[in-house]
Amino acid sequence: MIRPILLCLLCLLPLSGQAQNTPPGQELSPGAFPPPPVTQDGLPLLEARPNFANINALGAFIDGVVESRKSRDHLAGVTVAVVKDGRIITLKGYGTAGNGQKVQADKTLFRLGGISQSFTWTGLMQLVESGHIPLDAPINRLLPPELAMPTAPTGPLLVRHLLARTSGLESTSFGHTIRTTAQGITDLGTYLQRYHPKPVRPAGQFAVPSPYAAALAGAILSHVTGRNVASYMEEQIFVPLGMTHTSLREPFPQSARESHVLPPAMNDILANMLSQGFAVQNGRPVPQDFDYRSHYGPAASASATALDMARFMLAHLNDGAYEDGRILQAHTAKMMRTHLFSNAPGMPGTTHGFREYNLPGGIQGIGEEGSTLFFRAKMVMVPDLDLGIFIATNTSSGTDLVSSFADLLVARYFAPESATANHDASTDAATTSRPRPVTKADARKMAGYYLSLDRPFTLVEALFRAPAASYRLSLDDQAI
Question: N or C: which end of the chain has fewer CB within 10 A?
Answer without folding.
Answer: N
